[in-house]
Amino acid sequence: MKKIIKSLQMNRFRSIKSIEYDDDGMDQTLVHVHYKNIRERIMRIVEREEDKNDYFQSNVSGKIIDFRFSKPTFFVVHPIASYHPSEKESVIQAIHNYFLDFFGNSVEYNWKAIEYEWLGELFIPFIPQLQNVSFCVHMRLFPEDLGTNPTEFTQMERIENFFSSSPVLKSIKMLALLFTISFNPDSKFYQTESIEIIQDKIIKPAILRHFQGRQAVIKCSSHKTSHLIEFVNRWKSGEAFQKLEYLKIEMNRTPRNRFLDAIGLKHIDETKQPPTLAFPKVYDWHDEHAEPYTEPITSHMYVVRATDNHVASIMIQRKKLWFGVWDKTKEEFLRMMD
Predict the structure, then answer these.
(1) Which domain range does residue 104 map to?
(2) Is the pTM for the entire model greater than 0.90?
């Protein structure tokens, strides 16, 4: 039966980019297939509702699972897999193993989880043990009181335990309001491949100091020029950010001339057209409306890393700064303009 389905749906399957599990942190996981620009729901995985009597059973990867069908929406139905609370992870594992057996490694598998707060209680994202899956987490780190004298976020120990017990994440989308505390410098938070964050102070969390991933987008309310200088100079020395490809910072003011003077900035001849740099996004949180590439960087300004002579372009527009690392030495980079 699998061979028949694959042969009949060959062209459709070839266009599948990824399978994504959207876990809402409460009682359901939605399974979506991502085509090029289309996101299609194919299944829900929910806690069993005992008052329903239209279940049927199916053997999925050796585990018997109760299913029923959703109500038609625009003449489309999808299966609903059910679990008892103690079996949630094993049911999800069986369904995922079935997809792995069916599609193999021809598609990406992503698990997207959300941290949320309900009646004052913080619920940590659910991360199951699944093979060949990348994990993406959406979190909000907010103090309980945001009044005239806001308190500090009090759940940092639980958040740190979550990161230490989880695999290194593919992507984090975060809203953080931290005043006196932050992540430990060696936290696995900073190992995340891609971070998209809105924060108050640029050093809380200190992504510009400890980030070990590939792509970061930071929106912050306050920063010091010294933080930007330190970041660029540590990259230039080869001391840090060896994996960094792309960084974008949105700030409360345009970086000052002191920043440009302190980083050993170099310039392409103004008569030449500088090349444009963009990267495939590690992960995009905007689903079917996603732009697959980072914002392009086209700039006459660049810096050079001492350890391998590689180049990073720097672009500044109004209150935004972009930093993009070329996989080229200074000589190779300048030859692109010839």
Answers:
(1) 1-109
(2) no
